[in-house]
Amino acid sequence: MAGVVEGKGVSTEAGASFAAAHWGDKYELALLRLAVQSIGEAIVITGPELGTPGPLIEYVNPGFERMTGYTLQEVMGRSPRFLQGPLTDRCVLNRLHSALQMAQSFHGDAVNYRKDGTPYHVEWLITPVLENGQVLHWVAAQRDVTERKRAEERERRMVD
After folding, report:
1. Which structural domain, as residue segments, surrounds residue 137?
2. Same domain? 88 vs 144
3. Nearest-5° Cα angle at 48, 43 to 52
4. How many Cβ atoms are within 10 Å of 159's Cβ, its own excluded?
5. Where are the alpha helices (DSSP H) in the chain?
């Protein structure tokens, strides 16, 4: 029967409500963890510090691991700056740094490098996690836009 948990006689809607009420924070935490691990985009969570060596990675999801080739164990405690290289646009990094120093979100794209050394274009949305006006963490949602950039370049060449 649709909407009924087999053998229990409890609707899934009622079951979800019960779980949320019964488990509260544990349920919410488990749901958030599952969502972050399941999303196709890369998620990076760092500490708040902006000086040298930069914010240090505390968590990356499987999307980050697929995009870069690095595991959480390999990047934990490192600054995301290690992904930068010769093709990384310093002007973008300067704008990023300025936004972060003002505890503002930043949206932009640049070239990063995978574990095997190949460059890729990444689009970032970096957001501060604030409590009482203090930055506790930075959360970055990242997307590999290499194919989009290649398509744009092909179009540009066709027009020229």
Report:
1. 41-159
2. yes
3. 105
4. 6
5. 12-23, 25-38, 62-68, 72-75, 90-101, 146-159
Nearest to 118 by CA among 81, 62, 69: 69
31 and 51 inside one domain: no
Half-sphere exposure of 20 (CA within 13 A, CB side): 9
Same domain assignment for residues 83 and 14: no
Q: What is the CATH number of the domain that holds 137?
A: 3.30.450.20
Same structural domain, 30 and 68:
no
Same domain, 95 and 148: yes
Beta-strand ranges (E) seen in 105-158 are 106-113, 119-131, 134-144
Interval 67-116: pLDDT, tens: 999 999 999 999 999 999 999 999 999 999 999 999 999 999 999 999 99
The 10s digit of each residue's pLDDT in 119-154 is 999 999 999 999 999 999 999 999 999 999 888 888
The one-letter amino acid code at 104 reads: Q
The answer to whether residue 160 scores a pLDDT higher than 60 is yes
17 & 96 share domain = no
Count the neighbouring beta carbons within 10 Å of the beta carbon of residue 134.
10
